[in-house]
């Protein structure tokens, strides 16, 4: 999965004036890059990110900032073209006679940054490490379709009976096989995702055990390599240099510095001053004037992201547990005004859990639950006991520019439901993710999802599947899980869409999350660079960026 930290917003409207007045301002957006600790090479292209949640380990990176760095350091079996179709990269072929037993052959031309060849064993070692529940990797759940996963992850209180996936077999240096528990026609489509990157032999200190310092100075197989170790929590630049031995050729720039910010306004001021080169999302008032200010250096295009308000339906308050209260909250949100006014028309009101950029999306699928109707919303809220359920707290990360739209939502709920609502800013997105993962977050929360791979299944299973690592709501339904398995077992992704849509319908009824808006990419770059492209996964194509 890939949760995303950011939102682009425009302030100063009457709607926001009401929202800010109602909740008295509330901050957390005061700090910026702040320090040159870990600064990289002179002349490096500088890219804005938030602080990654974890060290730089592919199987433990499920948010956009860490993934941006890993996308420069690693390449996987497949990647995705401009039409979001997978194409082979490290893989020579990925074939199966029955969608259950897969044979993967490598091209054999890729090398690690230490000069060793990338071999089949590197993928098997990496996947076994991430799939081992004892290693507590965020990407663990993505290996749940492979035979032997259940033995490695038997559930809480039970003892694992295996430390490797029985479904993985190395045939030779350029070939390995993958046996799935059930047929899954979309399996090759998944394999460009971060969790499926390989790991070199040098990453491990012993069989199945990663070196403690690998995540601060990872050895990859991609177009850039680390120029120095990065210390998470103190260093505010992740410094990389070009890998001149990359098998696909040399990148056009010599170095990339990923600069960590806790405030998008600070980053934007650095961009305007020429102290930062690329932002894939812009803050506050920037969007309404950015096209005029940056001209052909402004990027506006569809994104695969969806913005939500989520609820911990298993361990939250009464309003989080009651689906009718959640529906009332959804009906009380004025999506049209928020997207047009707060976001200056650069968002689209969300009406499905599946994004319009992939097959399976249905316009208006959410129906009444996502239709703004204050009168019906209040009646349902009162009938469901919402007025007695207590205050509603909505947490959000202050490092992603969410303050204004969350406060606008809070104002909607106060005005339309008579509810007591408190927005709760948290400095770093990583903090919210950690608390959600530990089931310590009691209130509602802002969340977003960028697709990992182009399939409707990716908007369903990783976020709402039983036991999924990104299932922060705690939603669990055997019917939902079974429908996903039916969709997987179809001969093609297109044939499986009906089953995925039925699973989607269950979510639209239960609303563990409330879809609020579909994202759009709004980025910009400095006069120091050119040929900057951002894909629907919100990844910057750093290999082809050039100095201007």
Report what the structure shows:
The structure is a single chain. The chain is α+β, with helices and mostly antiparallel strands. It has 16 helices and 21 strands. The protein has helices at residues 14-23, 64-73, 120-131, 149-152, 187-190, 264-273, 286-294, 318-321, 323-331, 335-342, 374-383, 403-417, 429-437, 461-464, 478-489, 493-510; strands at residues 45-49, 78-80, 86-88, 91-95, 101-106, 168-172, 175-179, 204-206, 209-210, 224-226, 237-242, 255-260, 278-279, 298-310, 348-349, 392-397, 421-426, 444-449, 513-525, 529-530, 546-547. Strands 13, 14, 15, 16, 17, 18 and 19 form a 7-stranded mixed sheet that branches. The longest helix is centred in the C-terminal third of the chain and has 18 residues, at 493-510. The protein is globular and about 65 Å long. Keywords: Signal. This is ABC transporter substrate-binding protein.
Give keywords.
single chain, alpha+beta
**Average of per-residue pLDDT values:** 89
The percentage of residues in β strands lies in 15-25%
- Derived structural class: alpha+beta
Kindly state the number of beta strands.
21
Distance between the termini: 34 Å
The largest sheet is: 7 strands, mixed
Name the poorly predicted regions: 6-37
Shape: globular
Output the radius of gyration: 23 Å
Q: Give the proportion of residues in helices.
A: 25-40%
User: How many H/I helical runs?
Assistant: 16
């Amino acid at each position: 999965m890939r949760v995303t930290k950011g939102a682009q917003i425009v302030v100063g409207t009457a709607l926001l004036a009401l929202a800010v007045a109602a909740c008295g301002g509330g901050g957390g957006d005061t700090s910026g890059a702040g320090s040159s600790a870990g600064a990289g090479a002179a002349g490096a292209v500088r890219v804005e990110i938030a602080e990654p949640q974890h060290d730089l380990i592919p199987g433990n990176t499920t948010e956009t900032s860490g993934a941006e760095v890993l996308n420069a350091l690693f390449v996987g079996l497949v990647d995705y073209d401009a039409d979001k179709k997978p194409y082979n990269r490290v893989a020579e072929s990925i074939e199966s006679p029955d969608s259950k037993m897969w044979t993967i052959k490598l091209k054999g031309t890729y090398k690690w940054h230490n000069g060793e060849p990338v071999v089949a064993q590197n993928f098997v070692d990496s996947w076994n490490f991430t799939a081992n529940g004892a290693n507590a990797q965020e990407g663990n759940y993505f290996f749940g379709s492979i035979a032997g996963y259940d033995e490695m992850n038997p559930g809480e209180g039970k003892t694992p009976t295996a430390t490797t996936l029985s479904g993985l077999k190395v045939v030779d240096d350029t070939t390995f096989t993958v046996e799935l528990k059930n047929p899954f026609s979309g399996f090759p489509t998944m394999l460009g995702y971060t969790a499926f990157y390989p790991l070199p032999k040098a990453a491990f200190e012993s069989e199945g055990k990663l070196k403690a310092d690998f995540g601060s100075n990872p050895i990859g197989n991609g177009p850039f390599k680390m120029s120095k170790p990065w210390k998470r929590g103190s260093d505010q630049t992740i410094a990389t240099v070009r890998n001149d031995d990359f098998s696909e050729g040399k990148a056009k720039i010599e170095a990339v510095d990923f600069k960590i910010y806790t405030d998008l306004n600070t980053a934007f001021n650095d961009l305007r001053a020429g102290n930062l080169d690329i932002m894939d999302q812009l803050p506050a008032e920037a969007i309404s004037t950015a096209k005029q200010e940056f001209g052909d250096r402004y990027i506006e295009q569809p994104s695969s992201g969806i913005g939500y308000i989520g609820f911990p339906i298993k361990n939250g308050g009464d309003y989080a547990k009651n689906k009718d209260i959640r529906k009332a909250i959804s009906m009380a949100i004025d999506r049209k005004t928020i997207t047009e006014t707060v976001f200056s028309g650069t968002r689209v009101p969300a009406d499905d859990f599946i994004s319009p950029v992939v097959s399976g999306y249905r316009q208006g699928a959410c129906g009444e639950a996502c239709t703004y109707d204050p009168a019906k919303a209040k009646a349902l809220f009162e009938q469901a006991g919402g007025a007695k359920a207590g205050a509603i707290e909505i947490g959000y990360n202050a490092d992603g520019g969410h303050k204004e739209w969350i406060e606008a939502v809070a104002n909607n709920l106060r005005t339309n439901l008579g509810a007591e609502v408190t927005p709760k800013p948290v400095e770093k997105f990583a903090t919210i993710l950690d608390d959600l993962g530990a089931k310590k977050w009691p209130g509602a929360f802002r969340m977003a999802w960028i697709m990992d791979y182009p399939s409707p299944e990716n908007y369903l299973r990783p976020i709402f599947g039983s036991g999924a690592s990104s299932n922060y709501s705690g939603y669990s339904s055997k019917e939902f899980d079974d429908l996903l398995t039916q969709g997987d077992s179809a001969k093609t992704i297109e044939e499986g869409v009906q089953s995925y849509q039925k699973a989607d319908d269950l979510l639209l009824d239960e609303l563990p999350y409330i879809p609020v808006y579909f994202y759009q990419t709004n980025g910009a770059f400095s006069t120091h660079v050119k040929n900057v492209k951002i894909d629907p996964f919100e990844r910057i194509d750093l290999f082809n960026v050039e100095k201007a």
